[in-house]
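BlaI/MecI/CopY family transcriptional regulator, pasting as requested.
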Amino acid sequence: MGELEDAVMTRVWKWNRPVTVREVLEDLQQERSIAYTTVMTVLDNLHQKGWVRREAEGRAYRYEAVSTRAAYAAALMNDAWSQSDNPAAALVAFFGMMSEEQRQALSDAVRIVQGPDPGETTAARTDTTAEGAAEPSADTSAHTSAETPVETGGESSDETAASPDGQDENPASAQGDTGR
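Structure tokens follow.
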């Protein structure tokens, strides 16, 4: 995904609802000078690539993400790992780059995927979930290509609720328009 495609998808994922070209344009214009037709072309390209679906609304379209940002990140990691001639060494190097917080998140994720240890108590499982670990899901996106999005059936996830800058509201919702 290119830089502008990522900027557009970041907004689609963050807002977690069908969006118009105009909404994305107005938000992008807070950061850069960009034309309506450029945003329209980028959203059309993302549709052609399968990253967004669209539904006609009058003379325009509303675009909605097909997959979550987490599924996209997982597919990128899987693609990079699968291209290594020594997957174990690649994982060791990757783990070595992780912060302590990232290693803890990885440990929590492994526990979720593997299930509880036979001797683990219910209280211990509750503590792990309370620390913010996601619940297990049937999403197998880590086994897909980053070039092919994973259909999530419109699931809402915490990963899509906040942007990297920590803001979890779309500009329209601050004006009372939730888009729903």
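Note for the archive: The chain is about 50% helix and 5% strand.
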